[in-house]
Every structure is written in structure tokens, then in C-alpha cells.
Specification:
It is built from 13 helices and 17 strands. By secondary structure, the protein is an alpha/beta fold. α4 packs parallel to α10. The structure holds pyridoxal-5'-phosphate (PLP).
């Protein structure tokens, strides 16, 4: 029996499993050390009271004949789609209708699955470094060519390097891609684009018939005024952009699971409606997000929900500024941390990302994430996240400052 060979092309050791292994080995050998993790991109604050209240209510409903809900509608419950259309889009002057909102179980699955809409020979472009799911899912889809283990480069992927040299702003690639992944604010660099800069990408995509996949998982962290909260703030985005949203980083749903993908009805390629294609896929391959979780998502938009989730984002951003300022004091070149819960730093003494990982683990007993795990241009960089508790963040940074 032949298996899907594309899966076998993926390098075996996934970033976070390598980190977990190294940390386990270190703690086994040094049981007295107090290791602080500022590495993994999971939140730590509990679900806020407004959402818990909505969950309880929905759970109780499910036990009554009138309140029972079976299979969810394919595209999600209209109460949530209408809320999102209203609060996330129309309130910002963007015309996204409820039937263009596809409720999902999170941004990871949708950002990994969206590539199914494109032909096998579609050329994909990614900012480099970036969230690894975009490239890995296209490896599985057979689009990425041959992997060079030494450089970490796939032969058929168009990389758009984002480094300190270009202020982390990608340039248009030499080769026109069919699909362009943009994650803004960015994981892992924490940087973002101003509205006029993003508009250029929308214009480029419309001009060249490319499709932009816009991952807005960190939208709630935007603190600067001229940074768009959605790509649909740019003129013409309805004909070239798909936007992927998540409830994970703004409201702590990493365990509850909820997200949404926006596919405008104006988005067509070769006469085919990507909206209709995604609807077909959703109906066939997606089980729907649970009723109780969609009610929980609705509660995020309530007055209390907004207040409480914004307080969580503010909590993480207080950590971010502690990390940012502490590392600056310690003499590091640091980026991000203003519109995102990520701090991206140049390693000390030009160490490789993994050398710096070992250095921080064994000296400060702090775990971070090697930048090279996010793409070839991430080499010699390192990511720290603001998702820890404030106490641990302060302890970790104070240790680094003393090195
Ligand atoms: C964390 C993260 C996600 C995952 O979101 P889920 O909704 O939890 O699946 C998606 N995209 C980026 C860039 C992320 O960092």
C-alpha cells in the first residue's frame, strides 16, 4: 500500500518536541533547578467569568428538551456569525456579512486546511520567519518541493525574509506567488504592518491574481492606531483575501477551541467561488464547533466579556513590556512586544538560535523558542512569550539581566 509520501518529507523532529526533550533532559540531570518557561505559545490565564457563565447556561440548556442542540449548522450558529460580522467588521467599517463568516474549531486547523482550495502546483509565499503551520500543511499538500536540511529551505516555497535589516517588513517576491500567507501581528517577530503598507499587498494580490491568507490571531494585541485590525480595512481586500480568526489568544480558548474564517463572496479565481468551495468543504469535512463553545464565543462580545478579556490581554502586555525593557537594559537587540505578546531578540554574541537556547536554559534556567524553528531567516534570533504569569516573567527576566 502506498502512503502519502508528502507526509514523509516533513522533517521529523518538530520544534516544540525538541524543546520539550531538551528541557526534560536538563531537569532530570538538575532536579534542584527551577526552570521557567517563556517559550510555548499557550496562554495561562483562566477563562473569564462572563464566558464561564455562558458556558454553564448552555450546558444546562443541553439537558432540556427545548434547549438541546444536535449537529451545529455547517457554517456555525447565526448568533455568533452575526455578532462577529457586527463587532469585528461592520463596527470597523468593513462590509463582511454573517454568511461570509465560517465558524471553526480554531485558527490552526483552518490555516492548515485552507491550502486544499488551491491547485497542487500553486506556488505559496510566506514571510520568513512565521508560524510553521502554513509551510508544513503545504508540504503535506505536495506543493513545497525538496527540503534542504542544511538551510531549512523548501525549493518551491517563496520566502520573504523579515529581519532587522528590513525592519521586518517583507518585500514583494521576485516570483509572483499564487498564495501569500501574512500573519499580522506576526508570530514570532511581534511586528506588524501599517495600513498603507498592508494596502500595497492587497493591491499586489489583486493585480497578480494572488490570494492572501491573513492570520489575525493576535488582532486583540494591537495597540497602535494606524495598524489595521482586519485586512478588510484595506480597499479591494474582498476580492483577494481570506482572513483567519481565533478566540485562543484574546480570550483563552486554546482548550475550548473556537475560531472563524472569513471567505468573502467576491473572492473568485478562474471563475470559481472560493466561498462556495470552502462551504462545500466545511459541510463535508468539518464537524462544527460545539453549541456550548459557540455560546461561549458569543459571550466574549458581551460588555463584561469585552472588559474581562481586554484585561487578560493587558495582563500579558504588561509581561511583554517587562521583557522588552528588561532585555534592552541587558543590552539585547529586541523587537515586537508592542502589538503582540511576542518578544523577538537577536541572540547574544551571534550564537545560533539553538546555542542560545542551551545557553539560556543552563545559565538562567529560562526556556524560550529558537528563532530558526520559524524559518531560515529566524536563525540567530530567539522568541520569548508574554503568556506566563507576571511573577515568573519578572523572575526570568531578572535572571537574564544578571547573567
Ligand atoms: C496560536 C496561533 C494560532 C492557533 O490558533 P488556534 O485558534 O488555537 O488554533 C494560529 N495562528 C497563529 C499565528 C498562532 O500563533
Amino acid at each position: 500500500m502506498n502512503v502519502n509520501e508528502n507526509y514523509l518529507k516533513l522533517p521529523g523532529s518538530y520544534l516544540f518536541s525538541t524543546i520539550a526533550k531538551k528541557v526534560a533532559e536538563y531537569t532530570a540531570a538538575n532536579p534542584d533547578k527551577d526552570v521557567i518557561k517563556l517559550g510555548i505559545g499557550d496562554v495561562t490565564q483562566p477563562i473569564c467569568p462572563a464566558v464561564i457563565k455562558a458556558l454553564h447556561k448552555a450546558v444546562d440548556e443541553m439537558g432540556t428538551p427545548e434547549g438541546f442542540h444536535g449537529y451545529a449548522p455547517d457554517l456555525g450558529y447565526s448568533f455568533l456569525r452575526e455578532k462577529m460580522s457586527e463587532c469585528d467588521y461592520k463596527a470597523r467599517g468593513c462590509n463582511i456579512e454573517p454568511d461570509e463568516v465560517f465558524i471553526s474549531d480554531g485558527a490552526k486547523s483552518d490555516s492548515g486546511n485552507i491550502q486544499e482550495l488551491f491547485s497542487e502546483d500553486a506556488v505559496i509565499a510566506v514571510t520568513d520567519p512565521v508560524y510553521p503551520v502554513y509551510v508544513d500543511s503545504n508540504v503535506m499538500g505536495g506543493r513545497t518541493g525538496v527540503y534542504d536540511e542544511k538551510t531549512g529551505v523548501w525549493s518551491n516555497v517563496v520566502y520573504m525574509p523579515c529581519t532587522a535589516e528590513n525592519n521586518f517588513i517583507p518585500s514583494f517576491p521576485d516570483k509572483v506567488p499564487d498564495v501569500i500567507y501574512l500573519c499580522l501581528p506576526n508570530n514570532p517577530t511581534g511586528t506588524t504592518l501599517k495600513k498603507d503598507e498592508l494596502q500595497k499587498w492587497v493591491d499586489y494580490a489583486n493585480e497578480h491574481d494572488s490570494v492572501i491568507i491573513f492570520d489575525s490571531a493576535y488582532e486583540a494585541y494591537i495597540s497602535e492606531d494606524d495598524v489595521p485590525h482586519t485586512i478588510y480595512e484595506c480597499e479591494g481586500a474582498r476580492t483577494c483575501a481570506i482572513e483567519i480568526r481565533s478566540f485562543s489568544k484574546n480570550a483563552g480558548f486554546t482548550g475550548l477551541r473556537l475560531g472563524a474564517t472569513i471567505v468573502p463572496k467576491d473572492l473568485k479565481r478562474n471563475g470559481a467561488s472560493l466561498h462556495d468551495m470552502w462551504a462545500r468543504r466545511h459541510g463535508t469535512k468539518f464537524n462544527g464547533a460545539p453549541y456550548i463553545v459557540q455560546r461561549a464565543g458569543e459571550a466574549v462580545y458581551s460588555k463584561e466579556g469585552q472588559k474581562e478579556t481586554k484585561a487578560q490581554v493587558a495582563y500579558y502586555m504588561k509581561n511583554a513590556s517587562y521583557i522588552l525593557n528588561g532585555l534592552k537594559d541587558a543590552g539585547y537587540e529586541v523587537y515586537g512586544g508592542i502589538n503582540a505578546p511576542y518578544i523577538w531578540l537577536k541572540t547574544k554574541d551571534n550564537m545560533t538560535s539553538w546555542e542560545f537556547f542551551d545557553y539560556l536554559l543552563t545559565t538562567a534556567n529560562v526556556v524560550g523558542t529558537p528563532g530558526s524553528g520559524f524559518g531560515p531567516s529566524g536563525e540567530h534570533y530567539f522568541r520569548l512569550t508574554a503568556f506566563g504569569t507576571y511573577e515568573n516573567t519578572v523572575r526570568a527576566i531578572d535572571r537574564i539581566k544578571k547573567l
